[in-house]
Amino acid sequence: RALNHLHTATIGPATAKRLLDFGIQSDIIPRTYRAESIIESFENKDVKDKKILLPRAKEARPILPVELNKMGAAVDEVTAYCTEQALDNIDDLLSQLENNEVDLITFTSSSTVKNFKNLLPEKKIGALLENVTVASIGPITSDTAKNLGFNVHITAESYTIQGLCQAILDYYKKH
Predict the structure, then answer these.
(1) Which residues sit opposite 75 in a β-bridge?
(2) SS3 of 163, please?
(3) How far apart are the first and last CA of the chain?
(4) CB atoms within 10 A of CB 137
(5) What is the pLDDT of residues 111-168, one digit of tens each?
(6) Of 17, 39, 61, 72, which has the most beta carbons under 10 Å away?
């Protein structure tokens, strides 16, 4: 109740649900779950001279604060979390890839693509992933993967874990 004067926006339904667990209903949930849709949602709002707190990943793309600033908002970015490169079990991973024991790799963000690529020997990536299906949570992540040399077979239409799971099921039903 003390926060009833504030407005909130979430980038997806899972975050909106978690916010609701604390008794706060999100005012904006975009039609697609990416920064560009949040920007579209704000285009009909008067944010000039409004203060916006933007808790997000350290590695997040800059498009959201840049565009909100262009609309006249004062944006305070706060790093809520950061992704870190996993460095354990690399030998096991490489062994499983070399022995064709991996059928599918999922990427849930651009940082997961970058971090995974950093685990693989550059000269062996093509051979290691030759028989592996690559699935991505959405087009931004797929673009990152393609730009880093991955062949993306599956891109979720709904940019959620549930949407990614459904896209994987649909893919395997066809293949």
Answers:
(1) 52
(2) helix
(3) 52
(4) 25
(5) 999 999 999 999 999 999 999 999 999 999 999 999 999 999 999 998 889 999 999 9
(6) 39
Residue 149's contacts (CB-CB under 8 Å, 6 or more residues apart) are: 117, 125, 126
Residue at 43: amino acid letter: E
Which string of b and e fits 53-80 if b means at least 16 CB within 10 Å? ebebeeebeeebbebbeebebebeeeee
Residues 6+ apart with CB under 8 A from 3: 24
What does the alpha-carbon distance between residue 159 and residue 106 come to, in Å, rounded to a whole number? 13
Q: What is the pTM of this model?
A: 0.72
DSSP character string of 51-115: EEEEEEETT--THHHHHHHHTT-EEEEEEEE------SSHHHHHHHHHTT---EEEE-SHHHHHH
- Residue 154 has which token pair? 């599956």
The token pair at 6 is 């504030």
Instruction: Determine the 3-state secondary structure of 133 from DSSP.
Output: strand
